[in-house]
Amino acid sequence: MGGSELSTYKVFIQPQDFSFLKSDIWSEEKVPGYVTIQNKKLDIDIGFRGSHIRKIKKKSYQIEFYKPKLWKGAKEIHLNAEYNDPSMIRNKLSYDFFSSIGVLTPSAEHVFITLNGKKEGVYLQLESVDEYYFKKRGLPVRAIFYAVDGDANFSLFSDLDKESKKSLTLGYELKYGDEEEELFLQEFIYKLNTLLRDEFEKEIIRYLDVEKYLLWLAGAVCTQNYDGFVHNYALYRNGETGLFEILPWDYDATWGRDINGKSMDYNYVRMEGFNTLSARILGIPAFRNKYYRILNELLDDRFNVETIRPQINALYSKLRPYFGKDPYKKDKIEDFEKEPDFICRFIEDRNSYLRAELKKLGQ
User: Fold this and answer.
1) Which InterPro entries does the entry link to (predicted)?
2) Is the Cβ–Cβ distance between 143 and 241 less than 8 Å?
3) CA-CA to 202 of 20 to 30 Å: which in 43, 54, 109, 234?
4) pLDDT by residue (tens digit) across 188-208?
5) Under 8 Å between Cβ of 315 and 93
């Protein structure tokens, strides 16, 4: 879907079905409808998506294709309103960054949405992390888990109520796989919390692709997604290696802003991030040194203004003609115009902060 113009998705929902959908914004239920993309009509089921973002006036949607059952190899897609991000590019910029450093990442592309003939504005279409995602890439998959809340913290204790978890799969939703995969996840979480350091170093490589995890950790630390360490990720078990790998998800609260679009200090998230798995891995000298090398290389080659500013400019050039057509954003163009400089200042400050932290360690 490249090029300088955004694709337009024309969504239609019967008025009574749309009224039903709006009657309970927290419902996971979908209603029938259809979408026209590039003159092709597709029958769909559609519902709201997200957590806190359901309360905002510009809704985000999840679409499941009904007839045909797949569209461009996908069974479902997500349409993110990006309402709280004044730039509307943070999610896309994050996904492109993760992809550039070698982390498996969903594809993301800005589109323009109309709903029942009315302009809804600019959205970010996100690829769903499901079995079709891996099939498109020729990657074997045994299981996919979504980290749906803060209990997906790789700990024996709940991040939400600070008590022992009643189940080690709390915080996770099994998207693909069977009950045996849930047992394997429980075994993984139990062992990473209970093994002594020497045993942990030997055992962890039987469950986790450590190098890929360290790449993801470095990406989350650079972009400073505060929620990204115990939430906002997908965990998949590689069908060939049998090891867990991690994919980023919902990265709009990044690049110096939080989930409400408020400014976040460049040093808010420490260099090691935070969750139990990261703490245990970075407690092993060989893994910790590898992480520091990865981070140092990213600061030199990827996470800097020289590399990222052209990407920001390209995204801005693409969105600018459509921003004024977005009924929810057209009065906020002034804020939109300031964001490239804001993001670049964050990159400079964050880069300097992380370099100073590495220097303290003699890296």
Assistant:
1) Spore_coat_CotH_CotH2/3/7
2) no
3) 234
4) 999 999 999 999 999 999 999
5) yes
